Amino acid sequence: MESVAASLLAPQTPVLVVSTGMWGNRWRDICVKLGLPVHVHTSEPGYPPDPGEIDQLLGAEQHQALLITHVDSSSGVRARIDDLAQVAKEHGALVLVDGVSAAGAESVHQETWGVDAYLTSTPKALGVPAGLYLASLGPRAVDVLASRVWTPRHFSLDLRDWLPVMRAALEARFVYHQTLPGNLIGALTQGLELVVQEGTERVHRHRRLALRLRSALETEGLRNFVAADGDRANGVSVYRAPPHLTAGELLRGAAELGVLLQAGTHPSAAGETFRIGHLGNVDEQDIERTVGVLRRLLSPPNR
């Protein structure tokens, strides 16, 4: 995220950050540390950003970019990137999207949506070891890199120095910038082969598994943090703790039964929520095991 922001965002020019949780706030914090004027639109917890409100904010003052998180793992909210990108384009703003918890589990149509930079990382829905990030830049973002008249304070984070490397690779030449971690590139290659083999079924599988999990947990009386099903991510679900158990008690109990769930991280609801990651190379057995453990913990003897 910092690399994309540092490479594409001009100093002393405002940006608009749309936040649905912890990772929207991370965009904000990065931009603040880069010395950029930052305006933040924070959605109501459990709800996606309203494109109409974003339109008003972009219309009221010129912003060089709109920064969005596609799926915020702290809330489980999936933002409507297509609508938001359309609004940003109408106001001449770049569209930078954090897709770390989305790519590989959600439909992503960067060119159709008009997203200028879409970034993701390896250990979530791509299902390979951590340590790499991937950035896909559209023509406007590449033009910004090639023509900018300012220089970031960063060396390793600056994407501009990769342009001649990428160009040389396409022309069967070699240009050096930095040494890449070959072991992680190899792992990424294997992971992406699985993604390509599965194709669009990968998105459908994530959706089916999410619906199976949520249907079972709704029967048990758990409340999803995201208000509407259409705004819930395919690969992560955030739930409010039940009245008779704290989130910590529920997580400890699940861990004792062999299922590791994650504590809440939403800025306004961390202590009262917990998270279930069902992204990557998960299957029905993973869902059934998780549901079984939660049913056991939520059964009358434990209430």
Summarize the structure.
InterPro entries: Aminotrans_V_dom, PyrdxlP-dep_Trfase, PyrdxlP-dep_Trfase_major, PyrdxlP-dep_Trfase_small. With 303 residues, the protein is α/β, with parallel strands linked by helices.
Plain-language structure description:
The chain is α/β, with parallel strands linked by helices. It folds into two domains: 2-121 and 133-180, Aspartate Aminotransferase, domain 2 (3-Layer(aba) Sandwich); 201-302, Aspartate Aminotransferase, domain 1 (Alpha-Beta Complex), CATH 3.90.1150. The protein is 40% helix and 16% strand. The protein contains eleven helices and twelve strands. The strands form three sheets. The protein has a six-stranded mixed sheet with strand order 2-1-3-6-7-8, sandwiched between helices. A four-stranded antiparallel sheet has the order 9-10-12-11, covered by helices on one side.
